[in-house]
Specification:
- This protein is an alpha/beta fold.
- It has a domain of about 130 residues: Alpha-Beta Complex (Aspartate Aminotransferase, domain 1), CATH 3.90.1150.10.
- The strands form three sheets. A seven-stranded mixed beta sheet has the order 3-9-8-7-6-4-5, with helices on both faces. Strands 10-11-14-13-12 form a five-stranded mixed beta sheet. Strands 1-2 form a two-stranded antiparallel ribbon.
Length: about 400
């Protein structure tokens, strides 16, 4: 592979973010292709046995096996690292593989982790079910309360874990202040940044040590491929993440990495257009329901924090139907344009009922603790015409009996 300006950090770090999304991390083969090359290979050949030995013990640069590194995957990792302000990115097969790797690569039996209670259902399962099986102590707290983070710290606390904005409640956590608490306790802060995307929020600039994504969502953006990524500094990668990544086999496939590279080229444009639609939809729904959540709304309780951390309010609109599950189902079944699915961040708008899908694995008490109720709708706003979306949602609310 030839080095191009896309791999020169001294140059690419000066580029605007949209330019970075299109060109950062790019390498070209001897064919000088314009699009990133797709290397569908499991392993790599060597000129001689000495070269193979040198690559495996780190004395020579180059690729060895796609479970560890691959040229296409490396381009995606480099581009994401630059966007996030990280030294290193490790792309994984799914978003949950990224979350699991970020926690398990670092935590040991006897360690303690503090997690914000409002989180994606599978992330809560990691805290509530998986980590305790391996002797890792967990405490789940109200992430919006700085006092709760402070009170939960123990001598063996090694990591704080949070998602902001939270899935699906849109709870915001003050990343900068929580990072200070974590670092004062000698702990790392890991942030799931899926809802915000790197286009709207950069947790590392606010003090986070590790940032995770399900790249399945906005980064792909068109519902094509699964993927995830963990971003961190060089020391954390060398001592913890890369050994775990290499030996457990959670790597992203080169094809999916290529799709993610294509998605990054339009990420900023897509997310901003989706934010425009989300602003419009939230404003249209708000007069009809008592509980509509989006940072653009005048009554959003954490608007100041959202403005502090994010460039815009995001692509997710959350609202509560007073008639519970039955009314929520009537609403979703009446939608004519919008799809019913459990994905988000897609170019197509999606309505999700978290109580019966994404958070179903949690107990009823845990769902209610998180803030997931039978009438809650998670609405991922897409790229359709904004007026069409408003009309579709309004007629569905009418048919569901919302006055």
């Amino acid at each position: 592979m030839k080095n191009r300006t896309g791999t020169d950090k001294s140059l690419t770090s000066t580029w605007a973010r949209q330019t970075q999304m299109v060109r950062a991390g790019s390498m070209r083969s001897n064919f000088d292709e314009m699009g990133e090359a797709l290397f569908l290979t499991s392993a790599f050949a060597y000129e001689n046995a000495e070269e193979a030995e040198a690559r495996f013990d780190g004395r020579a640069e180059g690729f060895t096996y796609s479970r560890q590194t691959n040229p296409t995957t490396s381009m995606f990792e480099a581009r994401m690292a630059l966007l996030e302000g990280a030294d290193v990115g490790r792309a994984t097969g799914t978003g949950m593989a990224a979350m699991t790797a970020a926690l398990l690569c670092y935590l040991r039996a006897g360690d303690h982790i503090i997690g914000a209670r409002a989180a994606f259902g599978s992330c809560r399962w990691l805290l509530d079910e998986l980590l305790p099986r391996y002797g890792i102590e967990t405490t789940v707290i109200d992430g919006t309360s700085l006092d709760a983070w402070k009170a939960a710290v123990r001598p063996n606390t090694k990591m704080f874990f949070l998602e902001t904005p939270a899935n699906p409640t849109l709870d915001f956590v003050d990343i900068e202040e929580v990072a200070k608490i974590a670092h004062d306790a000698g702990a790392k802060l890991a942030v799931d940044n899926v809802f915000a995307t790197p286009a709207l929020q950069q947790p590392m600039k606010l003090g986070a040590d590790i940032v995770c994504y399900s790249t399945t969502k906005h980064i792909d953006g068109q519902g094509r491929c699964l993927g995830g990524i963990v971003l961190c500094d060089k020391e954390f990668d060398e001592q913890h993440l890369y050994p775990f990544y290499r030996h457990t086999g959670c790597a992203m496939s080169p094809f999916n990495a290529w799709v993610m590279l294509k998605g990054l080229e339009t990420l900023g444009i897509r997310v901003n257009a989706m934010c425009d639609n989300a602003d419009k939809l939230a404003a249209a729904i708000a007069p009809r329901l008592d509980d509509v959540r989006h940072p653009s709304l005048p009554g959003f309780k954490q608007a100041a924090l959202a403005k502090k951390q994010m460039k815009r309010g995001g692509t997710m609109v959350i609202f509560e139907l007073p008639g519970g599950r039955d009314q929520a189902f009537k609403f979703m079944n009446a939608l004519e344009i919008v799809d019913i699915s459990n994905n988000l961040g897609d170019s197509r708008s999606i309505a999700t009922h978290p109580w019966s899908t994404t958070h179903k694995a949690l107990s009823e008490d845990a769902r209610l603790e998180v803030g997931v109720t039978p009438g809650l709708i998670r609405f991922s706003v897409g790229l359709e015409d904004g007026d069409d979306l408003v009309k579709d949602v309004m007629q569905a609310l009418d048919k569901a009996g919302v006055k």
